[in-house]
Amino acid sequence: MSTDRFFNNPEYTKLLKSWEDDRIYTEGDRCELVKTNHLWAHEFEVEDKVQGGSKLRRIRAERSRYVNYIQAIIQKYISITFQNGIDLTPLTDKLSEEELKNIDGEGNSLKSYIVKFIASDYFQYGKVIDEVVGRSGESGRAYLKHWNPQDLTDWQITDDESEYYVTIFDEILKRENPNEQPKTVGLLESSQFNGSKYIKKLYKKNSSPVAGESANQPGQSYDLIDTFETGLDFIPFTVTNSNSWVQRFIDIVKSLYNLQSAEDNILNFQAFQRLIGSGPFTDGEGAVVMESGITLLPEGFTITAIDPADPKALRERIERGKADLWRVAFFQNRIIAMDSKASESANNQITQKKDLIAALVVAGESISRHIQDLVNNFLEFKGEQPIEDAVKFNFDNLVIDDVLLNSLIAMFSQDIKNYPTWNKAVLKSAAKRMNLAEEEEVIEEIDTTEIVKEKPQSTLRDRLLNGNTDS
């Protein structure tokens, strides 16, 4: 059995920490979120300073709950980007119905795979990795396999792209026999293209030291398990690199999580008035202080009332944090003070929303290129010819805020009525958004119906000046 040593790519090492933060806060991983590098410890939780500090920390962690804003924001990005749908018509002759409905062998359709894995990772990590696996050739069944950016540990490509390789590390639970507890096994897949053919090698992580190697030697040793010659003349990986959208506002989310944790603990621990008694007590003695009735207290015993804590300032900071989060996430650069009752003009709101739409269109086009390359890799893996525009996307006329759109329509309703073309366009747009069963008939009726301009109504002042007192 041969042994090889593998290393992490410097870019992988640089981005691993931010990718892990993205994963923890997007998934809401509670096991990680209660650790001190996410739920920040205050001085009273430091055990060597305060007796019972670890108990205070444990109670606070149990009371703290994480609100997953990031997942909601990513879903909003995706819903806006693909609100015009995904057209798979060009693939109906290339892929079977079973492939379209179960593209990854785990029950996800191609559309679901695009939204659930590709688009989500694009906004979350800024890096999307997909591989085509299965049996290659016309008789083979191909599947898509999605990899987390944390799994792609190393990659290399020559300047002329004649040779390249990628390394995937994955951990699986495996048991030798049914009577044993499953163990975590580290597997490494090395996909190599040597200029003429694609070879995949499977390795198992070597936990014991290799003879002649120093314990401090960089890299990790792996034992070769198997080698596969695929018969392909390319590596069926599709990788897209961009910038994480989540990284723009993840620090705001971290701050909100800790502020909300502090508020929850104040409400649970100090929200009510407390009475503290001091005086001469002997073992087993105590005093009961009630709202009514007679309480007998020992001589020299005093009662001190501690007023409840007021979390008003904390709540105001949380609200400012939420406002900052939505502004940064959705490109809303509000200039007016947060405590002002004034609102920004419709023109400013439209401009800011156009900025977000423009960014989402760029993201959508990058995602569509990734899908195009991935689908063609899938077709070539099956032994078929790639096609242009395998998946069609329409990013025209994206709308972010229906409320703003409706307010604009209401604002110019009288003007719209006096312009038949504008009027028909608004009516057809509204009909399409209603998802009517008779949508085609309604739009045809709007097109064929003549819309007459409304005559402006005369005011009472005009009628009196013209000598006409009729209503």
Terminus-to-terminus distance:
102 Å
Number of beta-strand segments: 13
In percent, how helical is the residue content? 25-40%
- Give the strand order of the largest sheet, numbering strands 1, 2, ... along the chain: 1-9-8-7-6-5
Q: How does the major sheet shape up?
A: 6 strands, antiparallel
Class per helix and strand makeup:
alpha+beta
Q: Unreliable segments (pLDDT under 50, ≥5 consecutive)?
A: none
**What is the strand content?**
15-25%
Which overall shape is indicated by the principal axes computed on the Cα atoms? flat
Give the helices and strands, then pairings.
Layout (H helix, E strand, L loop, with lengths): L2 E4 L3 H18 L2 H4 L19 H11 L5 H13 L4 E2 L9 H5 L8 H15 L2 E8 L7 E6 L4 E6 L6 E11 L8 E11 L4 E8 L14 E10 L7 E5 L8 H21 L3 E5 L23 E5 L5 H18 L16 H36 L10 E2 L8 H10 L1 H5 L2 H14 L5 H10 L11 H6 L6
Antiparallel strand pairs: 1-9, 2-13, 3-4, 3-10, 5-6, 6-7, 7-8, 8-9, 11-12
Brief characterization of the structure:
The protein has 471 residues and is α+β, with helices and mostly antiparallel strands. The chain is built from 14 helices and 13 strands.
Structural summary, described in words:
The chain has 471 residues and is α+β, with helices and mostly antiparallel strands. The protein has a domain at 1-28 and 66-270 and 318-411. The chain is built from 14 helices and 13 strands. The chain has helices at residues 10-27, 30-33, 53-63, 69-81, 97-101, 110-124, 250-270, 312-329, 346-381, 402-411, 413-417, 420-433, 439-448, 460-465; strands at 3-6, 86-87, 127-134, 142-147, 152-157, 164-174, 183-193, 198-205, 220-229, 237-241, 274-278, 302-306, 392-393. Strand 5 and strand 6 form a beta hairpin. Helix 6 packs across helix 9 and helix 12 (420-433) packs antiparallel against helix 13. It is flat. The mean pLDDT is 79.
